[in-house]
Amino acid sequence: MTDESKEKDVLQEVTSGEYKYGFFTDIEADQAPKGLSEDIIRFISAKKEEPEWLLEFRLKAYRHWLTIEEPDWALLKHPPIDYQDIIYYSAPKKKKELSSLDEVDPELLDTFNKLGISLEEQKHLAGVAVDAVVDSVSVKTTFQETLKKHDIIFSSFSEAVQEHPDLVKKYLGSVVPYTDNYFAALNSAVFTDGSFCFIPKGVRCPIELSTYFRINAANTGQFERTLIVAEEGGYVSYLEGCTAPMRDENQLHAAIVELIALDNAEIKYSTVQNWYPGDKNGKGGIYNFVTKRGLCKGNSSKISWTQVETGSAITWKYPSCILLGDNSVGEFYSVAVTNNFQQADTGTKMMHLGKNTKSTIISKGISAGHSNNSYRGMVRVGKRAENARNFSQCDSLLLGDKCGAHTFPYIKTNNPTAIVEHEATTSKISEDQLFYCQQRGIDMEKSIGLIVNGYAKEVLNKLPMEFAVEAQKLLAITLEGSVG
Amino acid sequence: MNKTKQNYFPLEEALIKEFGKKAAVWTEDELPGISQLRHQALAAFKKTGFPHNKLEKWRSTDMEPVYQEPLTVHTEETTYDKKIDEIFQCDVHGFQARVLSMLNGSFYGPEESALTVSADGVIAGSLRKAQQKYPELVGQYYGKAKTAVPDGFKSANTAMARDGIFIYVPDNVEVKDSFQLIKILNKKGLMVHTRNLMVLGKNAKLTFLHCDDSVNHHEGLINTYTEVFLDENSELELYKLQNLNDETALVNQTVVHQSAYSRLKVNVMTLNGGLIRNEIVDQMDGEGAWSDINGLFLIDKEQHVDNQVYVYHNVPNCESNQLFKGVLDEQSLGVFNGFVYVAPDAQKTNAFQQSSNILMSRDAHIDTMPQLEIYADDVKCSHGATVGQLDKEALFYLMQRGIPFNDARMLLMYAFADEVLGKIAIEPLRVNIEDMVKRRLRGELSICDRCVLHCSHPDKPIEFDIDLSKI
């Protein structure tokens, strides 16, 4: 076999791994009928025993949603989504109160174990509180007591609505209003659960907060809502991770994440997204339409997004920062890997409004197979944003000759003191680097693994320790069976 | 967006009406193919109207105020009564060029010079005459170019344009003297459509300077569409010089088709203009094609310049470069949208894009979007964009050495612009444009009443307050 065809074979092998987390937990679900109407929204609201104002909020969002059209500007191709063919509410049947892990549904525990995040282990080892969300309803929350000591509120969204309605009412929709976009309106109308986190004044959250989302029962769109507020001087690092079982029909996921940082507060939000990407022929997979936005409301506040996107058939996601406070800082670090027939259109928006605001964008795209991977970002410097500074770097790596890598940066500058820089390169994996590695006795497959991991290192380093390990594994799994 | 009869802008209505009046008459002296294109284009125009800023390609340029203006859609022929020199003066120091002129949308010159054939077979002159005289040649190329995303202006041009410049360079002919096109608008409230066609045969070579000028301060709208076909190993240097009054809007689309090993050099210099939109589409259809597309804009007041460049790498082994620089002062707005497309299997593509901009005032505004869409893996593509102000340290360095603030500032701005200016290959033209840029940066010149190059005096260089030789 010639070297070239061998190289192709290895690349082929390396890039054609199948999804390893495909399994299905059989839990009885409490479901709403298919379809979307005001009645369904009232049903969800009643099911969750929500106050009147929240139902109003949902209905307003729904009525607005009816008036707008699905956006088509992204470089994504998918058959039209039938919003009436989706079950908007599905919850595992309520069991009696749980006092220990032994009482948790063993099948559920098994699911978590397969994912490698056993609750027992985490409880003892990592110091991570897990708010595990299975099919839209929070099942188990740990470490509540540790957090209570610091007056930190970390609970499922529905609990927060019951227990801290004032806080929720104050901040809900303040960063992402329901009028923001099509999917935000949809989410605002039908969101079922999510996480709520409140860090009071001057508190540094001692542990990394984490939520695992899982999409379960067939045909259930998952509409999560996350709201994190850090008061003056607060700090929190929040981890969000997703893996979903294998399904043939496409599932819709439209989440909203809102972050609010007041004076001197810092929020670090890390995501590892590994929803089911569809099989080798592009059949099935999750449609992921997410609106994530952070508001640096106070002076010297900081919001940092780090994401590792390896899953979903379609990813439409632009974690953004509004830098309103003076001296505030926004960061965006992203690794997006697409394989087979996956499509990703992801990036960020940095809105510089306050004085001396800074933002950094590092985006690494890796495409393989027949996939398409786009970076789409906007840096906007407002009129009053004196001395705004932005640096963006967006690199794309192509593995294979059937995939695509695209870059769409938008830079809008309205202030002469701003300095905005954007750089992007697109290239295939370097033959020199491959040759160098192989010359030193590292086989082809391992060399590719090394190079890809090295390429993404800049972003992976930004992840909290626990996540970095998993992210590296995911990178490897997405691209092959054994790279790395 | 589909339009209905109620929601046309006045200008759109005027255009459709004018077409209804003239179309039948035009058919008499035209190629049937062209008439057919006209009707198709009008049907398309009726559906879309002129572009609005909800369209992705037009998001930063809103021309709606222009559509509201009571402009006349001008399709009358201009009769030749006096020499072009009497209307407009243009002689560039040391620049030898064969001048073609257009006045208010039609070819302007004595009857005998409307279409000439030189000894080596180069055909140059009015497009309307050319399609009567060389129907096969024109028919083969007219309307065959592929735009990026067809829009209302293209349709309007295809439907309404009657005249323009036609240049044909046969195989193996290198045209020694440059061609210069002077396009003038000297009447009030006109919308004119002009259409140019350039065809270069194998190994042919041509230099073309396209000047857009306006004589007096009337509002107007010029819609120009240029098709260029470069055969194997041919070379075209295209310079566009834009110096219009602040009331005129100019929409300029150029589509170039490149065959194997052809070379394209474009330089767009915008020194003044109310609202200018330049769109350059480069379709690389043959392996080994090469292109270098550069632009410089120096704008102030409420001027608006929108540069759109689309490079399509349709085949492997091509190379493209884009470099656009802008200096924006007062309330001006600049837009750069560079787009590189690499088709599946267009391997070994090299594509580079760079957009650099300096904002001089609080109210100036720049939008820049360098975009890449790549479907092949063995490629080297990169792009960069910067927006900033003059380097304070460099300014300090110069002032420390005794150069006054204003001169230091100007030197730095000039150095910034020089990267683009240095790419102009015709020596006398470069010297003149460099001089113009210096004057422009110094604020000595806003708009020239005559040809912009005519105002240049490179033999009387700008004096600095200090002795430059001592630096």
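The longest strand of chain B covers residues 190-200.
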